[in-house]
Amino acid sequence: MKQKPQLKIFSLGGTIAMAPTQDAESGVRPTFSAQDIIASTPELAEVADISAESLSLKGSANLCFSEIAELCQRAATVSTGGIMVTQGTDSMEESAFLASLLHRGPQPMVFTGAMRSPTQPGADGRANLMAAALTALTTEGPAVSVVMNDEIHHPYYVTKSHTSNVAAFQSPVRGPVGQIAEGNVFLHPVQPSPTFDIPEKFAPVALLSAVLDDDGNLFDTILSAGYTGLVVEGFGAGHVSEKIAEKLAAIAAKIPVILASRVRAGSVFERTYGYRGAEIDLLNKGLVPAGRLSGRKARILLSLILGLKEPDWRQGFTHVVKHV
Ligand code: ASP
Asked: What is the pTM of this model?
């Protein structure tokens, strides 16, 4: 009999692991372990020999960078087959992005979860688990991917775009890098992306968004609050008001400041708009463009790079941006 491939599942919680509390009024809460999750999807055993480990059991807003780093350390000890990670969808794009910077493989790592908890009608967890398992057993995809609703997404681009729809995960402009249909995985070729060591500590990096008629008082608190980096999501292609531009210049004189966009798709500009507070002015003031990385992913990358204390943080940051 042909030996089945190995599949390791690490679970972190999320809706896929949630069940109603005794008192139905109190809603669903993280309940199921990795073992429970496997038991709920017997079809997994048809494609692989599964082993499972619960690393945490929480709503994904509570996950920390250190837990994703630990996950990647554990994943590095898996020597054959594929790796699946189940977690809440709320922060999945961030965890998967961080994992893509830390996971050196060679086993593919696939993040999945559910938009509907297991006891809800039309629960999507089982289907997502099966699609993720098939993807994790394929070596042609990205080293780390997000699989939801039969689509395979690259961690650089994927974002949760709806609070409840099972098709919530999208990769704006670029689209998914693959699909799963009838048990087959179809993938577009992808470039390998840069990886880094795990830092002893991630650096504290703040994320602020430009909003209309902002007094900018929050920007004044960045240095005294102990942040060692800042990401600002500008309007449009990377613009802020003149008032905020002056504040950013003062901050950028002291700590790294990254310019991203609050718009969901497209790159920040570098050489089009010349008025005060527009991208040319901000880059001249020392800000560094995030390219097509979202502000929240740029924050993770900067936190990692600064945590590594490399002499040239710009080089490490822009190296990744060029791959996006
Ligand atoms: N709504 C979330 C989920 O889909 C909850 C979480 O992210 O933990 O899992």
From this structure: 0.97
